[in-house]
Amino acid sequence: IPCTVTMGTLVPAASITHFPFGRAEEKEHTEVNDLSFPLAVRQPPTIVTQSPKDHIVDPKDTMVIECEAKGNPQPIFSWRRNGKYYNVARDPQASMRRRSGTLDIYAWKDPQEYEAEYQCIASNEHGSAYSNKILLRLSRPPLWPNEILEPVVVSVGFPLVLSCDPPRGPPRPETYWMSSCECLSRAVRQDRRVSTGINGDLYFSNVLFNDSHTDYCCNARLPHKHSIQQKRPVVVKVITTRTVSEAAPTWLSPIRSSSSVLVLQGEELLLECIAAGVPTPHITWTKDGEKLVVKPGMRIKNFNKMIHIPKASFDDIGEYVCSAANKIGYTERTIIVQVKAAPFWLEKPVDLVLAPEENGALVCRSDGIPRPTIRWFINGEALDTALPHPSRHMSGDTLSFRGVTMENTGVYQCNASNQFGYLLANAYVNVLHATPRIIPPQEEHLKVVEGSNTFLECRYFGSPVPDLFPSPADSGLHLTHSNGTLEIKQIRLEDTGTYMCIVTNIAGRDESQIRVEVKEPTLFVSRPQNLKVLRGSDVTFECGVKADASTPVTTTWLKNKRPLSLNWRISLDESNLVITTVNSADDGEYTCSIKTEMDEKSASARLMVMGTACLSHETSPFSSYADRPNPPTNLQLSDPHERSVRLSWVPGDHNHSPITEYQVQYDEDDWLPGKWRNLSTYPGNLNSVILQLTPYTYYEFRVIAVNAIGPSRPSRVSSRLQTGGAPPDVIPRNIRGVGTWRNNMEISWEWNGPYLKYLVWWKRKDSREEWKNATTKWLRYYIYDADTFTPYEIKVQAFNSFGLGPESKVIIGYSGEDRPSTAPLNLRVSDIESTQVTLHWDPVARNSLMGELKEYKVYYWRDSSQLRWLSVSRAMKSKGFPAVDTEYTGVLDELLPYSNYKMHIVVANNRYDGPPSHTIQFSTPEGVPSVPKSFRIQQRHLDTIYVDWALPAEPNGIITGYTLKYQTVNATRGEEMHVEEFYSNVTSFSVRRYDRYTRYRFSLAAKTQVGLGEWHTEESAHYTTEGGCSVLYPEYNSARTSECIMGRWSNRLTHSNTHTDTHTLVSLCASASPAYATDQVDLSTKGWLIGIMCAVAIIVLFLLIVCFIKRSRGGKYPVREKKEISLEPVDDKDQEGTFDYREEERGLQRGQASVEPIMKRTESDDSLVDYGDVEIQFNEDGSFIGEYTGTSRKDAARDARDVRDEMDYGGNMDLHSTMNAIYSMA
């Protein structure tokens, strides 16, 4: 029989009585529910260790098939091979270990003969336990085929596929391509045009000349062997042509127009679409007709060519369509995704220990898609074929016992299976009679600290189950656990006393007592504080303690977690630590450790010794010395296990900033070393941690220290570690079973670890068929030939070469749905209103739905309007009505009044619509009309406003007239609302206004016999005196202004609403004629604007006054070294580039009659001459006067002569004002 082992033995819960003679307390105790089965009690066999169902071994080594069991008496082991008894003793190439069922097969000759199905049986006089059927397979190392690849010749622009055909796993190897296979190899660059497919092939959407290479190599990385194999290189020769023809997209992968992908829940899902074409096509994805929504965990990879879902779930089921498009054409492919699941546990049977005449039950609940089938066995024999027993009753997944006897003792097997896999659990029923026994506690006198949680142990065994005598109710502070442990929460001093535990049954009684003594807690009165001191100072670390008077206290000081040696500088003042004349060696962490016989506490502080060289009254004495820490050193690995290892290191110097944390990084990639990842972070006070790792993986580690300044450099890399193999420890999650076609079901689950395979179980729900199972390495599995929309029980179990993982619970899945076969009958309407109608119909039979009832869907369309002249759209619409068991009616709204409608109804499940019913017709009565079209406000004269309009787009009946309301908007006096009524044939109106500045707000509505329709409101335009053009577009509710600027037209249009009507553009252009601009605001009347302008004017005036004052003051001003015109001979003594205007003034007053010496050219005349006629003026500092003003040398000379003539003409004139004028002009 297919089976799975159940590990461990459960002891039934017993009742305990605790009599406190005083009150008690306890130290911390973590495991309060673990009980041991007494060794002297008989026990049926239980298999505790076995090899995985799919057991792959290396034929070069000894092939080991494990089978270990426990029981009393010691079990005897036997084996079956291919369903027949296997005599191990007579096989010279096999042996069974002593006192064990483990099978060692040496297979010196023909190891292939030992590839078979094995099953271990552990038996004693109380029953037989069966292991799984273990399929033994020999591993064969994968090798590339030894072949010579011919060169590939292809023309530019054509697609190309280079085949990889990597060696098969398991697991599937990771493939990558290199463009050179020798020492200078490099990976082929991936982009929209070039990509690697799921199967490892290299795809070129179109070939370029640069794709020519002497060799392309496909490399396969086998993670489970940590090796890389390389295929023989292939040469690609690209032939160039004069022109490259453009081509529409065609598919390279997948080739078929429609394909199906089956994945098991939790497995990896990869969907791929690669297209060829010139230009390179763009790939897009849709799911079930809608744009693909990227969920958490989903990734779009390979330049949109691949969908990667690490853990498939039932939400991923659907129809995926990938589309490829370029400017030449478009094509698409459909991929149907199905997710399946195997059986999983809802409730596993557990071992039973019963006394004679007691009752009990074994429960075996599982689920899967399809629903698993449950079968019961006793000692390997099917119960449905075994002889009936009066005390045993089997009902589906429950096996009940009433009034048990010794004959009911045995090992029972529960088998739950479906087509994707199976589950099997062993549970024994042990009928015995035993007096109560209490295992003596480890401590009979317990001293505890006040306020702690205390556990008093009272472990026991007995059959029948011992009772409490008497049975007190648990209080809030006292809790009795099922194994007899008494928990006292927040124990107090008054809880001191003796506690007695008493267990009784019909066979006898037993008792045990514990003395509990509660002490006051040890508390810190004063703690040491972090200190930063200068070298040579004295420091004191305080450590005041308060403890129980009867408890001796020992105080110990540590430095950097090591005992501190006392000397002439370091001493104790009672419990305080005193250090005199500190130096840099005293820098570190000091810990005050307080220890009593019951507890131990400590408090730490940091001493930072600062130097004196950087002390300053302006800077902190600490800032110059703080820095990033030095990297840790001497990394050591110890205590290696399959999933953990201890890493220790020596901390580096923290450089006067305490280390706050350590970051541990790892590198596990043997193919691309140096790719470091963060593993975990630990507090800065640790230097030895246990790392949680993945089994069967190579690791290297390094550590980074972090303080307030930043991280240190990474430490040196640790030695290389390979963790051992281990069975998986995570249950596959999100198991689902959903049909993707009418006769199939996809079982899927989420990925829960690398290098795993999965056992998938399924069976029909509520059926007696056996569980079916299958093994897969993917995250989904498909069941075919299933009935339409049938429930299945599903469960999934992960395993690897090291053993089986935990089994999942049983879930319910359904096979696929089909198209409903019948249509709803008697479709009718009632309560017809202008915009809605009430529908009624008769439901369809459940057996014709071919799936789950989703809704009834009505398809309807507007066939015509009752106004014969009005054309309508006959677009079909639909509305769904959720199914309600008691009501088959619904309200169809959003209809248009005064219209003729047609409709039919269908029934829909989750995938398909059924056939349509007969089509019925109905008409809606009149309603209120929509807003009138083409509402326009025209101002043909300055004193008259004209308004006109057209019929509503949807009259919704016979128009009987119009109502127009209008009122002034910008008038200073209030005016009442005017209302005008018009017949249906009147579509215009004019109104005289008081003056040209009066604006009106118009509101217009059409009406039928039912009432008024929607109102359209609009305001007339503003009046302005600026020259320009005003063109009104009432159908846009906006204004277009065309301005005449320098003989050109500039049009501006502001839209607020868009209509399809077109009106003539009327523009009036005049230089001073009035015009109107919609929504124009007169800013000149705004107070805030006037205030801003006044402030700006005051600031400008103030700046002008300051400027004039500075000009009138004189003095020295900086002057550029190089000037064209010098107003005074250059003084060799003045080399600072200054010019004294006061000296110039005094010189002129002394009667200098000529300025020719002043016109002497300096050596820098050509500094800006080469820049051409550039006008550059610097009017503020007077630095550039000559050529720097952009004038030529002749102009400068002419200006000088003019100045001289003026001086000759009036020699007594005030030259100072003349020179100021020249400077001002400059």
From TrEMBL:
The keyword Transmembrane applies. Gene3D superfamilies: Immunoglobulins. It is a single-pass type I membrane protein. One of its GO terms (molecular function) is cell-cell adhesion mediator activity. Signal peptide: none annotated. Keywords: Cell adhesion, Disulfide bond, Immunoglobulin domain, Membrane, Repeat, Transmembrane, Transmembrane helix. Its main location: membrane. This is Neurofascin. It comes from Gadus morhua (Atlantic cod).
